[in-house]
Predict the structure.
Amino acid sequence: MLGILGGGQLGRMFCMEARRMGYRTLVWTGGLEAPAIVVADEAIDAPFDSAEALEEFVAKAAVATVEFENIPRETLEAVAAKIALHPSPNAVAICQHREREKAFLKQHGIPHAPFAVVASAEELAAAILEIGTPAVLKTAAFGYDGKGQLKLNGGEDPAAVWAAFETDRAVLEAFIPFERELSVMVARSADGSVVAYDPAENRHRHHILDVSIVPARIGPSVAAEAKVIACRVAEALDYRGIMGVEFFHLPNGSLLVNEMAPRPHNSGHHTLDACATSQFEQQVRVICGLPAGSPRLLSPVVMLNLLGDMWPDEQVPPDWMPLFQDGSAFLHLYGKRRAIGRRKMGHANFLGADPEDALKRAETIKAGLLRGGR
Ligand code: AMP
């Protein structure tokens, strides 16, 4: 029985791969809406601070993993005290908190954007002088998909900005005029061996991942360097499991690590249809002490995220016929009942002869979905 902390779509796809491989799964949802419940063998629908839930989880699961980094550190520690948890609570704690994440990158000499830690209006004023503008103010804890972020262009009143930001710790980061965003998925096994997938080129819409293009349209040396850096991150964290490392690729060719995800990542969903081993199978393999599978890309691919605003109505799905008529597009839906706002409802992988061909078809389908949406 494989235990998973969190019950979102990443947990759902983990459970589906685990089942295919003959494992049983136990999902602890944290009390949140949980697309994974219906595909798990068993589920515990309770908050992460529940002592009874903890007892049941560690009694039933042989080994555990996470699908969501914002799990209280105490819960991670309590699970790890009883059963094997991969990745470790320490690795998750670093990735779930921007200040710790930045400190980690700095300590290990891994390239990252200049930053300063801010805990008051005075410190924000000093940080603006040090880092300069434009800059991005980010909450230290619980940020994702651009949430808890504010761009400062210069001229703002630090006291007013700090008062409105409503947090007690933040990081001010230099704004990076990147050429493109990249990410690399890596799987690191019990024996320390590590495999890296080809970098994905990521484009966002409203701060949420829109499309991932694989292979990224970069030279072989940039691709190789991104993989090397991602492997170094996994090694420095003494990581066991699957992780995503996000990069900014600058016009001068250099790479900066933006952030890390201690779990499967949205930009790795193409691996379900386009790679020898999916990122979810890697997670199963590595937490179970099996060797990682080949990360080889079998076909160029574009992953299109399907967000709630593509739904004509909260409970009415789009017409999928154009997508199915494509023949080389593969639909993955997460079983969420209501398409609220820009919630991630699913994704589609478009296989193609080359990334441009796949992108063109994905963009056509996307335009139709957006026309029919809200
Ligand atoms: P994050 O939640 O840190 O991944 O930020 C979400 C998105 O905001 C990133 O994928 C970038 O597109 C953008 N962003 C974040 N930090 C910076 C930065 N320092 N400079 C430029 N863009 C940024």
User: Anything to note?
Assistant: The first strand starts at residue 2 and ends at 5.
